[in-house]
Specification:
about 120 residues, Rossmann fold, alpha/beta, 5-stranded parallel beta sheet
């Protein structure tokens, strides 16, 4: 079973995503970017769902650190964000993640996006 790491500072968001994914994937969860990086290095998930807007270490910073580590640079990342204004969308896309979804995420769209990335 493929493993997905959920990095989000919101416990409610992590639980919601876990419920959406638990029938199809094994999930790992981290409440912060720093914790997420540690888990990613140790567990080597197949995919990371990363909240873009987090305190202390933003999703953007977390993504950069993941990309700069040999152990994690090849793990695909999908950004999740609740902000949909043009500037923020462009900032997310400049990071060049494998995917980008707006919160709240619909289960069908989430699963299709994950399947597409994991099959590529």
């Amino acid at each position: 079973m493929k493993r997905i790491l959920l990095i989000d500072d919101s416990m409610i968001q992590r639980r919601t995503l876990n419920m959406l994914l638990q029938n199809n994937y094994e999930t790992l969860m981290a409440p912060s970017g720093l914790e997420g990086i540690k888990i990613a290095k140790k567990e080597q998930p197949d995919l990371i769902l990363l909240d873009y807007d987090m305190p202390i270490m933003s999703g953007k910073e977390t993504f950069r650190k993941l990309q700069n580590e040999d152990e994690t640079k090849d793990i695909p990342v999908i950004f999740l964000t609740g902000v949909d204004d043009r500037e923020d969308v462009e900032a997310v896309l400049k990071c060049r993640p494998q995917g980008y979804l707006l919160k709240p995420v619909e289960q069908d769209r989430l699963l299709k996006t994950i399947q597409k990335i994991l099959l590529d």
